[in-house]
Amino acid sequence: MLNGLLSLLLLAPFSGAGIEIHADYPGANIAVARHEDDTVYLSQELRDTSGWWFYWNFGADGAPGETVTFRFTDGNVIGTRGPAISTDAGATWRWLGTDTVEKTEDGVLFRYTFDGTAPSVRFAFAPPYQAADLDRFLARQAAGAHLAVETLCESEKGRPVPRVRIGRLDGGAEHRLLLTARHHSCESMASYVLEGLMAALLGDGEDAAWFRANAEALVIPMVDMDGVEDGDQGKNRIPRDHGRDYQGDSIYKSTRAIRETAPGWSEGRLRLVMDFHCPHIRGGDNERIYQVGRSDPAHWAEQQRFAGLLAGQPNLPLPYAASNDLPFGESWNQPSNYTAGAGIFQWAAGLDGVRCATAFEIPYANAGEATITPDNARAFGAAMIPAIRAWLE
Predict the structure, then answer these.
(1) Contact 37, 63 (CB under 8 A)
(2) In angstroms, rounded to a whole number, what is the distance separating the alpha carbons of residues 235 and 49?
């Protein structure tokens, strides 16, 4: 495993034999060991992560016609659809595919040929979602009585952590919802789902109009704002990750602010809490959309009721079924998984009025046979709105 010293190489761009690698933009994460002929040896930066994780994101500049092999030396860190690629400085992303991906004895590699139309390319484990993406989304929304963009708190590094309120904002909302994402900073595909959900709440249609007349959502799109922008793994962060910081005294400003803000804001009318995540890299449960089942039977029953309503929506853009959900006590969803601390859905279950506190896992690359993209992830988030309305009613 590469140690932290190697990451110092990327304080300035790494160049060699016609290829330049850089990690000088928000969300970047890479450590370069060496360059031999047309092969660059690199790995993901774990930084303050306990154990192994798989997020990476870097830029590469190459000459037209040059084929470069990118060889990762710390495990198989490429998912089921190959690397994600952007040729417009991160504005849009697509899957490169697996045709040029090969496993190695110590990790995995992929090859890419620069075609001259885009000499500078970004590659990532999955399509990233940064603060700039959230800002662009919010800038497209019409200002009005149903949207308030505010600041939850300042992060440890001085960044504003946004909070967004959507719906009936005059205090008369019968129902309140708390929606969160990026407790683990690398889990970017979850942000596309949350963006689609927010867009639908602000959009046209009977369900959105009903919501804006009867409900208010408090949205924290990037709980670990510093991790998102710095390009951290976020998962299993030392001494505690944000997703386990809801027990005892919270050590992070954002989780502490959520715990201080939500009870007063909700006024006993908080009904539904939804926390959006991404699972592990591949295989089994990690390739399906599912809810993390609660240990409390009443909450599990409400999770299953919501699952039936969501699965029953016509023409879901991504496959989902109530049978996908992971009951407490199965697979990784064991009591031992929560010894490091409670998650937001466990803490929020004790707030006045809450009938369901749940977490959704959105795979990075595929749900069954369906390839997940930013567009259909957004569409899946939008498809949640009629199910949320039906569940609230």
Answers:
(1) no
(2) 7
> What's the distance, Cα to Cα, between the start and end of the chain in Å?
53
Distance separating alpha carbons of residues 146 and 192, to the nearest angstrom = 21
Rounded CA separation 228/340 (Å): 22
* pTM, two decimal places: 0.95
Whether the pLDDT of residue 8 is over 80: the answer is no
165 close to 147: Cβ distance less than 8 angstroms: yes
Beta pairing class for 67-72 and 39-43? parallel
Helix (H, G, I), strand (E, B) or coil at 227: helix
pLDDT of residue 358: 97
Q: What H or E segment, with its residue span, contains residue 153? A: strand 147-154
Per-residue tokens: 366: 């595929």
State which amino acid sits at residue 29. N
Residues in contact with 313: Cβ distance below 8 Å, sequence separation at least 6, in sequence order:
383, 386, 387
Residue type, 290: Y
